[in-house]
Amino acid sequence: MVERAGRVEGKVAIVTGAGSTPGPGVGTGKACAVVLAREGAKVLLADLHPERAEETRKLIEEEGGVAAVQAADATKAADCKAMVDAAVEAFGTVDILVNNIGLAAVGTVVDVSEDDWDRALDVNLRTAFLASKYTVPVMAAAGGGSIVNMSSISALRGDGTVAYSAAKGGLTAMTVDMAYSHGRQGIRVNAIAPGHITTPMVLSVSDPATADFTARMREEAGLLGTAGTGWDVAFAALFLASDEARWITGVTLPVDSGVLSVTPLLMAGHLRAVPGVGD
Fold this sequence. Notes:
Blueprint: E1 12-16, H1 28-38, E2 42-47, H2 50-62, E3 66-71, H3 77-91, E4 96-99, H4 114-142, E5 145-150, H5 162-182, E6 187-194, E7 197-198, H6 200-204, H7 211-220, E8 228-229, H8 230-241, E9 252-255, H9 264-272
Parallel strand pairs: 1-2, 1-4, 2-3, 4-5, 5-6, 6-9, 7-8
Helix pairs in contact: 1-2, 1-8, 3-4, 4-5
């Protein structure tokens, strides 16, 4: 059992992408689901890979929380509707939605393929659109709720991932429009822009030969000089989902160790001052 502060006590949450890619560490979806459950929410764990969500459910229940798993391909409208229906059937309503699904796509506008472009928009943007489409009416009927969209610092600066950046930029814009459209229904909509966090998914696509150097560079890219994890993102999501953020809507909150606060040239000078980095 985990002692609970009850910051979302009695609320019902849906977290999409609630499983973690196999490997060390914790993904943002799994971390968000666990933290929400620790603070009193009943959580529907939606994932394309239900076996991964089952691992999240097991952890939540071992700590005394309540969770259920729903297999869902959130790029499909029918699956998103079934996901919301499952949450209502199991727990009575939906108060919190965390649109967490994401997929990186490296490449400039010249070399990214049309298939990769379409896939990036489907996975990073369409999923949030469809999940929200079926969740908003439930929240509105209940008098309100909170939606947290997982954007990225890539939506706010260039990094050579044009399809991913465009999708996350679209998600940021969608966040603002949803906040405008549904605020008078009591629904708050905010986004988080994670920075260089270390998750199992990141590690799974990293080159083992340069993993240590890459990890050090990711740490030193931020003002704090430390590594971020899925838990850092989850604590931000918890705040935005809770009544503590009752007067906050339409914002994008960076969780990035201050990366967006500095220019690349200034950061390059900082890195050259770190022994073994930027030599």
